[in-house]
Amino acid sequence: MNITARKSLAAVGIGAMSLLGVAACSDDSGTDTTDTTTMETTQETMQETNTAATGTAAPAAGPVGPGCADYVAANPSGPSSVEELANQPVAEAAGNVPILTTLTQAVSGQLNPDVNLVETLNGGEFTVFAPVDDAFAALPPETVQTLQTDSALLTDILTYHVVPGELAPADVVGTQTTVQGGTVEVSGEGDMLMVNDANVICGGIETENATVYLIDGVLQPQ
């Protein structure tokens, strides 16, 4: 996969370097009841916020970003192509994007069996800021190990990358409130967009129920 200035695809991991201190100090002794409650609350929140945002999105003008041409050239047809992704629910589409394997593992219970957001993500309309595999490559092993057992922290990080409602590139710039409850700041214009400190590689990719922005960094919940 030839996305602009990326390193080789990396091992499983999710989180942010700035979260290492928090992750290392996290208490791994949470009960199954707490994890279950966290997941149920997250799913309810995503469904409620999505309902409020449904119907507010403007039609997309097409993907933007310095890596779009490379992605289209590398995936001209088949389930990974921009055209085919538009017919797939977002969690399925993520699994078909070659540079989103790590994120796919994180949202589908493969990283932490107590965190599976597939049904929830496929059940509403969202804008998803999706860190590519290279964004996870430099994460320390300690972060990965913590997220494999800390369901609340993993859920917090994942939902910070999701905004209710579909936002096209023309509408996404500004302060956006995430499902996690914090906000992200989208800045820039044209092919040069940023989400907090992460660059948009290719954004405005349509799936059946979401608009996806491939980004080169993992966002830190606020």
UniProtKB/TrEMBL annotation:
<dbReference type="Pfam" id="PF02469">
    <property type="entry name" value="Fasciclin"/>
</dbReference>
<dbReference type="GO" id="GO:0050839">
    <property type="term" value="F:cell adhesion molecule binding"/>
</dbReference>
<protein>
    <submittedName>
        <fullName>Fasciclin</fullName>
    </submittedName>
</protein>
<dbReference type="InterPro" id="IPR000782">
    <property type="entry name" value="FAS1_domain"/>
</dbReference>
<dbReference type="GO" id="GO:0007155">
    <property type="term" value="P:cell adhesion"/>
</dbReference>
<dbReference type="InterPro" id="IPR050904">
    <property type="entry name" value="Adhesion/Biosynth-related"/>
</dbReference>
<dbReference type="GO" id="GO:0005615">
    <property type="term" value="C:extracellular space"/>
</dbReference>
<keyword id="KW-0732">Signal</keyword>
<dbReference type="GO" id="GO:0031012">
    <property type="term" value="C:extracellular matrix"/>
</dbReference>
<dbReference type="GO" id="GO:0030198">
    <property type="term" value="P:extracellular matrix organization"/>
</dbReference>
<dbReference type="InterPro" id="IPR036378">
    <property type="entry name" value="FAS1_dom_sf"/>
</dbReference>
<feature type="signal peptide">
    <location>
        <begin position="1"/>
        <end position="23"/>
    </location>
</feature>
<feature type="domain" description="FAS1">
    <location>
        <begin position="87"/>
        <end position="219"/>
    </location>
</feature>
